[in-house]
């Protein structure tokens, strides 16, 4: 049973990627390798579909061809999808201080995390997947030799684990960049705010050129440090220089961060003012 669950997770995570990548690429008029991870899979689809498949046994005693039962099943599947989407959005936001999709502009949304039209779409799609597609995958599973299944599962989950480790490292690094930007900004007591605000705005809007934007302040920092030293503030200059060096070191290791922005080009993060409030609370 466990092997089958692991196999179906692979199938539905890949299907999620195959569904989202063409859809988003078409809307953006360019190829976008959708999915939070590097590989061609979207884990939330795997988890949601498995939850649906494993829990649909509650309808075993009902007539699955009855239109009322079908509507109830679609509603039930939509609720499961919405719960997974909401909790994933909330968890990522709490952990990384960033929001990766936002339905605030759509009607009947809940905190911008889920929206009724998408929930209905997932409910119908999930029903069709469970009723007509999943039996095919279960048949394929039964036809594969157990030894081949073990090899497939070991290879996939090894790659999947490595992918998760590197992705979460990058996301934690991004959160650290934002925090250090705010800390460095406070060190200048209001000077060069326009530079930092531009950098924050670039990050919040997921501008792929945000690293270039951040590099724009280097000359200003250098000039300010010279002024501080000339006025006898060597200790303060050293403190600021250390913070700037830490930030530059992070930036030099963060060339892969732009891939997050290309994957979610139209998904604004939290507002600039709200992010500053969060960072201030963290520092206090």
Helix content: over 70%
Distance between the termini: 50 Å
Order of helix and strand elements from N to C terminus: HHHEEHHHHHHHH
Assembly state here? Answer: single chain
Characterization of the model:
This protein is 73% helix and 1% strand. With 284 residues, it is mainly α. It has two domains: 2-143, no CATH class; 170-283, no CATH class. β1 and β2 form a beta hairpin. α5 packs antiparallel against α9.
Summarize, please.
The chain is built from eleven helices and two strands, in the order H-H-H-E-E-H-H-H-H-H-H-H-H. By secondary structure, it is mainly α. A hairpin with a 3-residue loop joins strand 1 and strand 2.
Keywords:
1% strand; single chain; disordered C terminus; 73% helix; 2 domains; 2 strands; mainly alpha; 284 residues; two-stranded antiparallel ribbon
List the helices and strands and how they pair.
Layout: H1 2-28, H2 43-55, H3 67-96, E1 109-110, E2 114-115, H4 116-143, H5 146-187, H6 193-204, H7 210-215, H8 218-230, H9 234-252, H10 258-263, H11 272-283
Antiparallel strand pairs: 1-2
Helix pairs in contact: 1-2, 1-5, 2-3, 3-4, 5-6, 5-9, 5-11, 8-9
